[in-house]
Design a protein that fits this description.
Layout lengths: L3 H7 L21 E3 L8 E4 L8 E3 L13 E3 L2 E4 L8 H8 L4 E6 L6 H14 L4 E5 H4 L11 H20 L3 E5 L5 H8 L7 E6 L3 H7 L4 H6 L21 E3 L8 H14 L6
Parallel strand pairs: 6-8, 6-9, 7-8, 9-10
Antiparallel strand pairs: 1-2, 2-3, 4-5
Helix pairs in contact: 3-9, 5-6
């Protein structure tokens, strides 16, 4: 059962219950699969909206489990990847969109968070589900144990990249908004996703403009020597070499909404706003 409020939030298409199935509120989601026990029993699968009764399906004899040897990944040993019959394509069909990561990079003060929020709003108005991973926000929780030293910055980006990948796998459009100054770290995040699903957006705004804006007062502190390793002052920023989208160039005169519309146009042209 999905209430009208949740339905509105997710932008789901809700129709009447399949014929012969009672529902006190006469609503049901007609695209679903149900995983059951791990004892080899069959699973319930339903991928259409014509009201037909779901077909039964078995996966490798054990629902959600992939057969094969144990693996070692990094420092994790004796682990095994578990599959579920509900896959990315099913979630994308449910949401009527394709999951991807929009990685917004640029200097502090270049307008990354402003663009991310404007883009989020435009996609919400179109009934598309997205989520913002903001650089400062993730340091309030997930990455609060990390400093701004080079090695911690690399780990910060790695964690955000992995979380963004999970969001994209659910079918959600994930907007990651971080300075992410090092090219190698951004490229490493790109390799986590299928070809085309990592969309790098470069906020191409000069240091002079960003420092003049200085919305958080950080440049002033860095110039006074109160912040060490600040990007653009005493730590480098490596601009993208082959980003999908470049925005914010001086003299363009474009507003945050107009820049967000360019990103939406890119998503539409690449087919991400439909399943």
């Amino acid at each position: 059962m999905i209430t009208s409020g949740v339905k509105s939030l997710l932008g789901l298409s809700i129709s009447s219950s399949p014929k012969g199935i009672s529902d006190t509120n006469s609503r049901s989601v007609c695209v679903f699969r149900a995983c059951v026990s791990m004892d080899g029993s069959q699973t319930l699968s339903h991928n259409n909206t014509n009201g037909s009764f779901p077909e039964l399906k078995s996966v490798n004899g054990h629902t959600g489990q992939k057969q094969g040897p144990l693996s070692t990944v990094g420092n994790s040993t004796n682990i095994k990847w578990h599959e579920c019959p509900v896959e990315k394509v099913d979630r994308q069909r449910l949401l009527d969109q394709k999951g991807c990561v929009i990685w917004v990079t640029g200097l502090s003060g270049s307008g990354k968070s402003t663009l991310a929020c404007a883009l989020n709003q435009l996609l919400y108005q179109k009934g598309k589900l997205c989520y913002i991973l903001d650089g400062d926000n993730v340091r309030h929780g997930l990455n609060r144990d990390l400093s701004f030293k080079a090695e911690d910055r690399a780990e910060n980006i790695r964690r955000v990249g992995e979380v963004a990948k999970l969001f994209a796998d659910t079918g959600i459009i994930c907007i990651a908004s971080l300075i992410s100054p090092y090219r190698r770290d951004r490229d490493a995040c790109r390799t986590l996703l299928p070809e085309g699903d990592f969309i790098e957006v470069f906020m191409d705004v000069s240091l002079e403009v960003c420092e003049a804006r200085d919305p958080k007062g950080l440049y002033k502190l860095a110039r006074a020597g109160k912040i060490k390793g600040f990007t653009g002052i005493d730590d480098p920023y490596e601009a993208p070499l082959n980003c999908e989208i470049a925005l914010g160039q001086e003299g363009s005169g474009t507003s945050p909404t107009e820049m967000a519309e360019k990103v939406v146009g890119y998503l539409e042209n690449k087919g991400y706003l439909q399943a």
